Prior knowledge:
Three copies of one chain form a homotrimer.
Chain A: E1 6-11, H1 13-22, H2 26-30, H3 33-40, H4 45-62, E2 73-76, E3 83-86, H5 88-97, E4 99-107, E5 112-120, H6 121-132
Antiparallel strand pairs in A: 1-5, 2-3, 4-5
Helix pairs in contact in A: 1-4, 3-4
Amino acid sequence: MGAPLIGIDLLEPARLEQRLQETAGLSAELFTDQEIAYCDGQTSPYEHLCARFCAKEATSKALGMDGFDPLDIEVLGGGESARLALYRSAKARADELEVEVTMSLTHLPGIAGAVVLALPRRIWHQAARGSSRKSKP
Amino acid sequence: MGAPLIGIDLLEPARLEQRLQETAGLSAELFTDQEIAYCDGQTSPYEHLCARFCAKEATSKALGMDGFDPLDIEVLGGGESARLALYRSAKARADELEVEVTMSLTHLPGIAGAVVLALPRRIWHQAARGSSRKSKP
Amino acid sequence: MGAPLIGIDLLEPARLEQRLQETAGLSAELFTDQEIAYCDGQTSPYEHLCARFCAKEATSKALGMDGFDPLDIEVLGGGESARLALYRSAKARADELEVEVTMSLTHLPGIAGAVVLALPRRIWHQAARGSSRKSKP
């Protein structure tokens, strides 16, 4: 395989906030415009940004990527409907492994985290078919 | 699918303790009698309660539930044999997705957490059959 | 099954450091020579040791082991190529369950953690076959 298929990452929001404030332009290197817009609309923007950064790191770990561009992994939306979108190097790696990636986020004032699962597509699609058979006699 | 199949949640035991002490009756809204009885018997009850609360949150995330009643998700037992039981809305959602849920808990004085995995039942039962074939020629 | 197939563990590096300094010989009971050598070569040895201890605990949780010898679970290498090797009781348990284990580590000065996934071997090998078909017309 060459990929753990599971990834975890933890980071303190205060640590991310400090780095973003120290380095002009870092925000645009780490996050897409949509991610920034979503987080800016929340009560604790840095908690939400931090969870998203963890999701990018956890995705790269689950896919066994040797370095990655944070903009190749995006968290779409937020709350219960937040989900991953992969582009360029990250999409190529998921295609190579034939996996779909899903994630879960968590954040507190002191710590944020994410876990990412890479599921073989055949299993993913079997599961999807299972869940679509909703009306049974 | 509509569900991430993986869920994580982190929470500080002190934060849960404060909320439970501020709000009369909250404990009975979050935990079953059996969960409370188990945790009361431990050296650090709030660490154990906190890990259980994380398990409930992580389950709702893994199943992609849009809001949930904490009493619909119960942690049975404790230690190595702790496991999830689903009722009502949570059971209906797992049935809809055709998944089984498993979990793992962790707790320290400063932080507790849980991760939950929702496995398609077909895979789950294949694995169960695999592990029952213990005596091979 | 009898095993959650997923495991998580968190631990503060300072807590592990204190225990190792208080108890002579504890290091050799918890870590292999290779694990110690790898971590000693890092800037923050206790962060790396702590993440490895979490990986051992998380593995025992994923496999549903009732107690375990930390030396039966080893983290080989480090960084993106870190991976688990199982011996004796841990290998026997994985063989019994017919699973392969993978993991992901995370560490900060204040907290370290690991998550471990136990995948049924049939799924694992299907995934491995999938990922080896790299040249498609």
